[in-house]
Amino acid sequence: MQRFMITGGNRLSGTVKVSGSKNATLPIMAASLLLDGKCTIRGVPRLRDVAVMRELLIYLGASVVWEKDVMHIDTQGVGYQDVSEELMRRMRASNLVLGPLISRYKYARISYPGGCDIGSRPMNFHLKGLQTMGVSIKEKFGYITAEAKKLKGSEIYLDMPSVGATENLIMAAVLAKGTTVIRNAAREPEIVDLQNFLNCLGAQVKGAGTDTIKITGVNGLNGAEYTVIPDRIEAGTHMVAAAITRGDVLVTNVIPEHLEPVINKLREAGVYVEVKDDQVRVAMDKKPLAVDIKTMPYPGFPTDMQPQFMAFMTLAEGTSVISETIFENRYKHVMEFRRMGADIRLEGHTAVVRGVPGLSGACVEATDLRAGAALVLAAMAGENGTVLDQVEHIDRGYERLENKYNALGARIIRVHS
Ligand SMILES: CC(=O)N[C@H]1[C@@H](OP(=O)(O)OP(=O)(O)OC[C@H]2O[C@@H](n3ccc(=O)[nH]c3=O)[C@H](O)[C@@H]2O)O[C@H](CO)[C@@H](O)[C@@H]1O
Ligand SMILES: C=C(OP(=O)(O)O)C(=O)O
């Protein structure tokens, strides 16, 4: 187990560069399984989840060479294998191999994926969409078996704009016979990135970024090089870090358009935010005003920023109402914030956060990835020292977060126990 010892009370100042997007890299790596050849992905973040996806590809027979932020994947001659349950359980995004495997081999058997405990996260939309494409699905003893003679282009309507289901279905449709239309598709920037990557390989995908995506099946794909987009959630986390510590930070390598909901809420809270090309400067020198947040699919306020924003609101002037509409169990950080002196009342899917004058250091636990990041922010803004356990969760989605913040003036020590 690893923990952070965080000394609070330091303003962050300086420049921090955002790494490549986790949620874009993972589906792009999975999509490489559609190819019988080589591709190179640039801007790959050094994260635990990316390492797990790499292991998964290697387990399936691919060669994966990962140097700094460049990954060379060779899927020539990869034959079918059932995916090991141990690997599937290590993260939620392992489910993204289902679409490519069924598309390439017309057969896939996977166990249900694992991942952070933020909700039940079923796969019914993924499976219903595949069934529409002619795939027979059997679910037994925690395993999903998908089988088809051939995949046929179809009209699919998603009951909810699920990110993973949209990605799995795009990947399943790329080599299918005919045209697939996905309606009520998720519109996240990571889906646009997947479309752009697939089209570089020779796929015909159109409409990502809107709620209707059209995929015309092709016979095969060719190799390519691709650079993933910057991570908008990492960027948003740094922006809140600057604001909560009353600092002044330039966040570089960002696509500001992807951050509009976060930028708007920060400004509403009284934070100075200056946007220029691929950089955002965030400065704050007073107590924030309380603002309300409701998480929504993109372009709404991202659920992956809810815990970090809640950390900020614990110190606001007034009362903030935060509604989590995406994941039913994404409030585990509330208990941890309370240990630090926050005043938060939970009413179903709503958290009522009454700003307090200050937070104090405490022994807390990173219950999941974003909860962990949010606790780092709270601890940096708090008084005294905080001991944050289970920081392995944070390593799933941030490249050495402590190094980035220490370079800005924070005091965070990683301890291995
Ligand atoms: C690797 C990756 O990109 N992860 C992101 C992705 O997760 P993920 O793709 O798992 O999230 P989804 O968009 O699928 O989930 C949204 C909601 O739909 C529900 N649902 C989903 C699929 C399904 O078949 N049935 C069903 O009921 C989920 O339980 C959840 O309540 O989008 C989430 C929502 O923006 C983000 O928090 C995650 O960081
Ligand atoms: C919930 C997240 O990721 P995943 O879907 O991989 O669990 C996240 O990135 O905040």
UniProtKB/TrEMBL annotation:
InterPro entries, A to Z: Enolpyruvate_Tfrase_dom, Enolpyruvate_Tfrase_sf, MurA_subfamily, RNA3'P_cycl/enolpyr_Trfase_a/b, UDP_GlcNAc_COvinyl_MurA
Report the subcellular localization: Cytoplasm
Provide the Gene Ontology terms for cellular component. Answer: cytoplasm
Q: Which UniProt keywords apply?
A: Cell cycle, Cell division, Cell shape, Cell wall biogenesis/degradation, Cytoplasm, Peptidoglycan synthesis, Pyruvate, Transferase
Residues that coordinate or bind UDP-N-acetyl-alpha-D-glucosamine: R92, D304, I326
This entry's Gene Ontology molecular function terms read: UDP-N-acetylglucosamine 1-carboxyvinyltransferase activity
Record-linked CDD domains: UdpNAET
Q: GO terms for biological process?
A: cell division; cell wall organization; peptidoglycan biosynthetic process; regulation of cell shape; UDP-N-acetylgalactosamine biosynthetic process
Q: What is its EC number?
A: 2.5.1.7
Using the record's annotations, give every residue carrying the modification 2-(S-cysteinyl)pyruvic acid O-phosphothioketal: C116
What sort of enzyme, by top EC class, is this? transferase
Biochemical pathway: Cell wall biogenesis; peptidoglycan biosynthesis
Task: Tell me what reaction this enzyme catalyses.
Answer: phosphoenolpyruvate + UDP-N-acetyl-alpha-D-glucosamine = UDP-N-acetyl-3-O-(1-carboxyvinyl)-alpha-D-glucosamine + phosphate
- Give residue ranges for domain Enolpyruvate transferase: 7-404
Domain of life, per UniProt, equals: Bacteria
Enumerate the active-site residues.
C116 (proton donor)
Q: Which residues bind phosphoenolpyruvate?
A: K22, N23
Similarity remark? Belongs to the EPSP synthase family. MurA subfamily.
Described purpose of this protein according to its UniProt entry: Cell wall formation. Adds enolpyruvyl to UDP-N-acetylglucosamine.
What's this protein's name? UDP-N-acetylglucosamine 1-carboxyvinyltransferase
> From which source organism is this entry?
Desulfoscipio gibsoniae DSM 7213
